Amino acid sequence: MIVSSPIGELPFVPTRLKYHARGLTMEGQMGAWPASVQIGVNDTTAILRMVATPAAVLAGAAIVARALLRRSARRSPN
Containing domain of residue 6, as a range? Predict the structure, then answer.
């Protein structure tokens, strides 16, 4: 992963994922420094909003693909 910051782009290398009562913590190294990302219960709505559109597009594509496959299967002779 690359993290953009005011001092430039630095690689973030995750080393550990911890679950606790407050949420998740991903620990790792960002460049030469130890770093952590904390995801709490309050972050859930923001994460759901972020993935809602791509999930809806994928679901729609799957429905269309399935309909096309069924239609194709009905047309092909046995």
Answer: 2-75
Domain count, the chain: 1
| DSSP state letters, 3-63 | EEETTEEEEEEEEEEEEETTEEEEEEEETTEEEEEEEEGGGHHHHHHHHHHHHHHHHHHHH
CA end-to-end span of the chain, whole Å?
50
Global pTM? 0.53
Six-digit token pair at 63? 């429905």
Residue 29 to residues 12, 38, 48, 72, Cα–Cα distance (Å): 6, 14, 26, 51
pLDDT number for residue 21: 86
> Distance between CA 36 and CA 50 in Å, rounded?
21
DSSP 78: -
